[in-house]
Every structure is written in structure tokens, then in C-alpha cells.
Amino acid sequence: MDITLKLIRTLRLFTLSYTLPLIAYAQESLLFSSSITTANSRYINSQNMSDQKGLGFRMSIEKIQEWGFTIGLQSTQINMKPITGIQTQNQDNRLLSGFTRIPTTNLPGQWLLQFDAHQVTNNAHQSNNEVDAFSPQIIWTSYTHPLKISASHASSYYPNIATIHQTSIAIAYGFNDAKNWLEIRDYSIKNLTPINAVGRSSTQATDIKLTHILNSNIIWAPSSVTLGLERGNKIYAVDMTSQVVYNLPMLNDGGENITANRKLNFGFNRMEQKKESPMN
User: What are the boundaries of each domain within the chain?
Assistant: First the structure.
């Protein structure tokens, strides 16, 4: 099924599931938002993959400065190299995420405690085409500087494979009046089964992302654009920034990507919306 048609059908279901709760909580100070994301990536020195494109949709509701949750679907189409004998592979990533915010007392800032649950399916002809992943993350945001620091751990559960563990730390800094954000994130993936991971028992990688936040009133113009550079090795990775799982057992030595995000203008916000950064 075409990924655009699939997301349109899911959008109808998500819209219905959100409308009724919002009517009940209309008197609260809630921020209701949604967005569409498109992404294109190119892999370096991958034996199997050439490039990929993805389309995602998300809906979020937040009680301002207290708690919130997000549901989303990301559909990805991976273009394979001729050696595989397969033209494309498709992957769907369903996301349920919740978070709470806690102000810090010693430093002017706040903690964000976040928990993501993923369910991933793909059409690959192998045993690991249904995956569950759980990834708690803690983020500290400064009130006096455009600075964010985060740490996370992800556990991925594959059929007939030992649980894969991933740790990640990141720092993000904003400049140009917080219209631009630079994020550096380190990934360490361990407990890989070599026979299912191209002979690897662990991998290490670093992602660098530069995000520019746009203030455009043009219909369907992006709200933000992100350029990404990946170096190192990844396999069975959970992207903690985009909240997407890559569950195919295919190793790459990095790559480049570009992502555009568009916030949709429907829903409601009973308080003035604050300036946001790429990290929650």
C-alpha cells in the first residue's frame, strides 16, 4: 500500500480518537498539536541498502508545563541494492509516548521524563518483521540558556533474538535567537547476536543534526528543516530524536539525511504557545 494512502487512513482514526477526549477536557489549559514529517536518507557503505524515504504523522496533547502524550505512525520505504534481489522494503513504526515535566530547584531549568513504546512491522522475508521497543529518556532544559542535555536507554525485543540494549547521550544548543539548533548524539548498541547482526556483537555511532526553525505562513511550507550527518555503525537502532525504530538487520557506516516537519493548524491551545526546540 502506498505510504501516503496508509497515513491518510491512519489520520482519520487518530483524529476521531483525539476529538472525544478533547471535548471532555476543553476547560483545561491544554495544548493540542499535530505534525507531518517527511525524511530522505542516503546510506554509506551499506551492503544492502541504497536510500530511504519516510512519511510520518503525529498528534499530541499536553497540559501546559505538566504532562502530555503523543501517538504517531511513521511509514518508511527502503530502496535496496541489486545484490539483495529485492527492489524495496516497507516498514511501519507505531508510536505511543508519554512525558511529564519537573522543574529543577538547584539549577534554573526543568527535567522532562519521557517514555516511548514502539511497535514495528515490515514486509521483509525474515523472522524479525514484528518488533517491540521501549525507550525511557530524561532531558534537562535550561531556562537561562538555549541548552538541552539528554540520556536514554532503549530495549528492543525481536523474535528468537536476545534483547538488544541501546544507550544514548546527547547535547543540543540553540543559537540565532534559538532559530537554529545543533544536536550531537552518541549511540552505543550492545547485546547483539552476531549471527543476526552481520557478525557484530556491538556497534557505536554519532549523529550530528542541524535544525532551522522557520516562521513561514505559507500553506504546507515546513515549520522546521533538519540536516543530519551520521558516522559510525548502526544496526537495530532506535532513533531517540525522531522516535523511529530501524529494525532491519542491515549495517551501514553512516549517511546523510534531510527532514522537513510541518505543524498542522488545527486543534486548540488555551495558552500562548512557547518557543520550542528540536528536543522535546
Answer: 3-263
CATH node for 3-263 = 2.40.160.40
Convert the pLDDT of each residue in 32-47 to its tens digit.
Answer: 889 899 988 887 777 7
Distance CA 191, CA 161 (A): 10
What CA–CA distance (Å, rounded) separates 243 from 247? 13
Please state, rounded to an integer, the average pLDDT across all residues of the chain: 82
Give Cα 196 to chain centroid, integer Å: 24
- Triad 129, 134, 140: Cα angle to 5°: 140
Which residues have a Cβ under 8 Å from the Cβ of 134 and sit 6 or more positions away? 115, 116, 117, 118, 154, 155
SS3 assignment, position 35: strand
Round to whole Å and give the CA distance between 253 and 234: 7
User: CA 13, CA 68: separation in Å to the nearest integer?
Assistant: 19
Q: pTM of the predicted model, to two decimals?
A: 0.80
